[in-house]
Design a protein that fits this description.
The chain contains eleven helices and 14 strands. By secondary structure, it is α/β, with parallel strands linked by helices. A ten-stranded mixed beta sheet has the order 5-4-6-7-1-8-14-13-9-10, sandwiched between helices. It has a two-stranded antiparallel sheet with strand order 2-3.
Amino acid sequence: MTDARRDACIADAAAVTALGESLDATWTRLRAGESAVAPIRRFGVESLDCRTAACVADLDADPREGENLVCALMRRALDALDPLPAGTFVIWTGVKGDAEFVEAQSGEAPEDRTEYRAPWLPRHYRRWVCRRLGLDPEEGIEINAACASSAAGIALAADMVSSGERESVLVCAADIVSRFTHVGFCALKALSPTVCRPFDARRDGLCLGDGASAVLVATRDVAERRLGAPPVRIAGWGLANDANHITGPARDGRGLKAAIGSALDQAGCAPDEIEAYCAHGTGTVYNDAMELTAVEALFGDRRFPIFSVKGAIGHTLGAAGAIEAAISARALRDGVVPPTGGLDEPEERGRGRVSNASQDFAGHRILTTNSGFGGVNAALILERRL
């Protein structure tokens, strides 16, 4: 970064997952090696081979307040935030929204289903967030970059802050386990009929999960005043597309390598200065293989901690990147990465890197990445100054 650009930092972060109603609760249970993946009760799965997911218990929406389940989940994360700086810009990065409502429509939405009654389009959710937080609902944007959406949102937020365009940007995302998404992933043969095992030699698919996160990206001054402590800096970010397939990643990892390479260049650090890696780690055969291919291309045979949270909280779709950025910031603070849930026997290239136990590291820099349908890849490098 040049001297003319400002530090973009994480000034606040909240997350709700099936492991916990807060970031603290999720982090504690992750470190303990717990998993929230369980049989699905939200909708019928009797005719399907894959019947588990990580769902938030007692998730109820209040239609009188214009809520659906996505709103109910997002509300829990927003309520954990302190009041935001005036003029905060909002980026919405959830990708599915009220899937059951959209699926049920044969044409135009009924006239009585307005965004004020219950959101269903991305712009509705962003405006709903703004109104709830007392911000201008006409200010903000929406990003849909599949499962890299909220990581891409944080990258854009960091660029807006570091360039001086904004003092603070809130990146929000929420996605739920719905019948629509679960059946769709079943049809793709992407779900595990057994256990989600990221980077395991016998991995056979992913599990979906409910998740919401809100990450406030702001200048260092704003972050320090808000936290009362040195904040985690977003040192570098990168986005790339491998242009390979609508659902399958390029096996040579070229898109992910390009995204990480851009993040490294912007952060001004060498590959050996990355001390831990929060991987996308879905537990599918091809995604995990692609990530390890990119790791070997960029980091050689160096062994350093790599982990995935998706065996514990499921794949939270658009919310994954923001949740994992918040978890990575917590890992930097504590100097430890959590176990990779579901992992039993690491595949050959993962040995000495992934573990089903917590791993200590220096706690200076951590890389976190996400990949999505359509070939999109996003990379963030977080840095903690001691």
